[in-house]
Write a structure and sequence with these properties.
The chain has 16 helices and 22 strands. It has a twelve-stranded mixed sheet with strand order 6-3-7-8-9-10-11-16-15-14-12-13, sandwiched between helices. Strands 2-1-5-4 form a four-stranded mixed sheet. The radius of gyration is 23 Å and the shape is globular.
């Protein structure tokens, strides 16, 4: 009997519990809300907002305002300095440093012991549970797991208190038994220098029987390419013949899919998307044939959704398919009606399934075009499929109106395989964006307001060099995709050196 066959029994009961998401998500969410408000009623925040008088969702919305990080920052900083019972009961010793924003300002997200276990680790557990259910022939536990993480540092020098990438906090606190089935060793996994870490991970992992990998697609690809260079192999299954699944999250997988499919040609390879962030673990791809994810309704997260462009906020049972919503969360880590910054679109309400459509602050709306990341990803995928190109990284921003009231979008794109005709790639991208977004199409009408978009071809390694300069190389750091500001684009163009502009 294989180790996977034995381990499968550990996940059996949870597989049955997950079936409740098909029919009972509303009750699961109401139970979560009651638990959160009851648990936190004696905290400073709970007393201030009369948690003891909250009897249901309507009371909850009347008692608690919608919060951004700025509203909670003062309380979080006091918690970081060791104060107890502020936003969540007891002392919170771990803080996930979030760079998943469109500005340089770091956020420090509390990670309570309950949140660590019942949100973050439960999400990882359920990823495996759903994967095993969908793949009865899996041998995932007969080999090692390569888990790519970031680094952490002491928090204000308080004993046992850490601040850093969420992935590093997870690795630091993981059950010691898990270290028997994972690579690299902990010392390597927590290195802060990504360039050094990448090579050490590659060398430690290339001799192991790795069956599954987990991490952010961009950084994982960098590690795997390093290993290919060291081993001289062309395909990953030549190094790891039993590789079978990549659990990926953090950024959209679309720009990287073709590169992974070229690197891993095994027909037994699977890809499973997860929606995990510093603030919590929210969704899992439960059906390999469906790109949408199942919203995880029984973790320590209560969800609300604000229809974009309106003040209308609804609980999970009030959402409608096809609409774009900004997501608000209340969690067992002490975040209350917190605007996370992501936007989602539901594809189903029975069960509740969704896709990530973008960021509330990662979009271009300089001229009323309301271009979101979801549009950008689909447009790039189309242009790549038509030209044979492959995009490694990109960012885009507006070029504001000149004296003739002419303006355009400017994209800085680093290709792993450049198109033969960059001008055609730009034209295809522009045409697809018009098909996907009626506001963009209206502004592009006859080039009267918005001119054809511009592509600046980035030299190889530009984005990695830029991220390193900003201290954001590796870990869970993300390249900002769309912005109304030109700060990122201009910094990249300045570093790019020669002018590779094409329209």
């Amino acid at each position: 009997m294989s180790l996977t066959s034995i381990a499968r029994h550990i996940f059996t009961s949870r597989m049955r519990e997950l079936d409740r998401h098909q029919t009972d998500s509303e009750q699961l969410q109401r139970d979560v809300l009651q638990h959160l408000t009851t648990a936190a009623r004696d905290t400073e925040y709970g007393r201030l907002h009369h948690f003891d008088a909250i009897g249901g969702y309507e009371d909850f919305t009347r008692s608690i305002p919608v919060n951004t990080y700025e509203e909670l920052k003062g309380s979080i900083d006091r918690m970081r300095h060791g104060e107890s019972d502020v936003l969540w009961p007891g002392k919170v010793k771990w803080y996930a440093k979030s760079s998943g924003t469109t500005n340089d300002k770091s956020k420090f997200i509390p990670v309570s012991p309950e949140g660590l276990q019942k949100i973050h680790y439960r999400g990882g557990f359920d990823s495996v549970a759903l994967y095993l259910r969908n793949n009865p022939q899996s041998r995932i536990f007969d080999g090692r797991a390569l888990i790519l993480g970031g680094s952490h540092a002491p928090n204000y020098n308080l004993p046992g208190s850490l601040v850093g990438d969420l992935s590093a906090i997870l690795i630091e606190n993981i059950n010691p038994l898990a270290n028997l089935v994972r690579v690299p060793k902990k010392q390597t996994a927590l290195l802060s220098d990504f360039e050094q870490k990448r090579e050490r991970i590659a060398r430690e992992a290339m001799t192991k029987n790795v069956t599954n990998i987990s991490g952010v697609p961009s950084w994982m690809l960098s590690v795997l390419q390093c290993m290919m260079e060291i081993t001289g192999k062309q395909h990953l299954e030549e190094v790891w013949p039993n590789i079978e699944v990549f659990f990926h999250g953090g950024v959209a997988f679309t720009p990287y899919r073709s590169q992974y499919e070229q690197l891993i040609t095994s027909p037994r390879m699977h890809y499973m998307e997860t929606y995990n962030a510093s603030e919590g673990f929210f969704g899992l791809q439960d059906d390999p044939q469906d790109k949408s994810m199942l919203l995880m309704a029984d973790y320590g997260v209560f969800y609300e959704f604000q229809e974009t462009g309106t003040d209308n906020i609804v609980p999970l049972w009030g959402v409608e398919t096809g609409k774009n919503y900004a997501m608000l969360i209340s969690t067992s880590c002490g975040l209350w009606r917190y605007m996370i910054g992501d936007t989602v679109r539901f594809t189903s309400t029975n069960p509740y399934k969704f896709v990530i459509s973008g960021r509330t602050k990662s979009f271009i709306n300089a001229f009323g075009e309301e271009l979101i990341v979801d549009n950008a990803e689909q447009g790039l995928a189309y242009a790549c499929s038509e030209t044979g190109a492959e995009v490694l990284e990109y960012t885009a921003a507006p070029v504001f109106m000149d004296a003739r009231a002419k303006c355009r979008h400017q994209w800085v794109v680093e290709f792993s395989r450049e198109p033969a005709d960059t001008a055609r790639f730009a034209r295809l991208l522009d045409e697809r964006l018009q098909q996907l977004n009626s506001d963009y199409e209206a502004k592009r009408y006859k080039d009267i307001t918005l001119q054809p978009l511009e592509i600046v071809v980035a030299r190889k390694g530009l984005f990695a060099e830029w991220m390193k300069e900003r201290g954001k190389l590796g870990g869970q750091h993300k390249v900002p995709r769309l912005s109304n500001s030109r700060d990122y684009v201009e910094a990249l163009i300045a570093m790019n050196g020669k002018n590779n502009t094409q329209r």
